[in-house]
Amino acid sequence: MSGEVLFYDGAELSFSEEVSTDCKDPGEINFVASIQNWFNPNNWQQMEVNKQPFTLSPVSILHADNVPCVHDTVVFPQDSSFIVKSVLPVRVAAVELFGEAQSSTSFKDFYSSASGSMQFNFTGPTDITANHCDDRTGCACGYWKFAKTICSHVKCEEPTCASAFQPEGSCCEVCGTLLKLGLGQDFKMNDFTSLLQNFSQNEYEDVSVATSKTEANFVQVVLTDREGGNKAQMAAEHLKEVLILDKSFNVAVTEVLEQSGTKAIAGKKTGSCASITHNS
């Protein structure tokens, strides 16, 4: 039998030969560890380069992007315990395990060992490629082909609007606005993501914002809210104005691909579509 027992800092475990007469026999108590699926988007938290929590959207609207993508670095912190499994291929750029960078060989050696097998249960292949995204306009995640598995862990709420839409990477239909960006030559995804982070935190706290490079090779911006998409539409209009006025973000065109409308009566749906071309 093998396993581990975890205690908080300062906790103590002691044994006594004396038998207390105040306690009744509770019977046999069994603890069953919960094994977490690698492709469950709720199991991951995005981090910035300095390893601080990424605050743009703690659990992204784009569920597939919550799962470590082929260009991502995965960090398993020191002083932590976990059990992770996957029957699908796991392919990422880098893995840091207990403070040490892993190669494909060293990672496989660990999770195949007696102690490592208590924390990792991989029946599919694993590959640490060291291939980080070197495209400043962003890179597609590459995991939407596993949408069925990813979305099996997601519970969707009923949309509160007419013309709800489902962006690439999302398991659920949402209310709000989906923007497609036409990129200028010097567009940088990192700078644009910082703009959206400030936009969501400081100006539209009730609006969730997510962005990604799609597999069709364009950048999408998804803005949603819990009030039928009205606040998200206002935020989208404001964002388009910002991108028109501030040429430093190098966005040439902002096109509305999807936009939800007010909940319709008698099953009728309303919606709109528009595009704005930015002057260069």
* Backbone CA Rg: 23 Å
Helix content: 10-25%
What's the average pLDDT? 81
List the secondary-structure elements in sequence, H or E: EHEEEEEHEEHEHEEHEE
- Largest β-sheet summary: 5 strands, antiparallel
SS-based class: alpha/beta
CATH 2nd-level architecture of the largest domain:
2-Layer Sandwich
Question: Number of helical runs?
Answer: 5
**Secondary structure tally: strands:** 13
CATH topology of the largest domain: Alpha-Beta Plaits
Organism: Stylophora pistillata (Smooth cauliflower coral)
Keywords: Cell membrane, Membrane, Protein transport, Signal, Transmembrane, Transmembrane helix, Transport
Subcellular location: Cell membrane
Main location: membrane
3D architecture notes:
There is one protein chain. The strands form four sheets. A five-stranded antiparallel beta sheet has the order 10-11-9-12-13, with helices on one face. A three-stranded parallel beta sheet has the order 1-3-7, with no helix packed on it. With 280 residues, the chain is an alpha/beta fold. The chain is 18% helix and 20% strand. It contains five helices and 13 strands. The C terminus is likely disordered.
Summarize the structure.
By secondary structure, the chain is of the alpha/beta class. It has helices at residues 63-66, 104-112, 147-151, 189-203, 230-245; strands spanning 36-37, 73-76, 84-86, 90-92, 94-97, 100-102, 120-122, 126-128, 176-183, 208-213, 219-224, 251-259, 275-277. It folds into 2 domains: 36-128, no CATH class; 159-262, Alpha-Beta Plaits (2-Layer Sandwich).
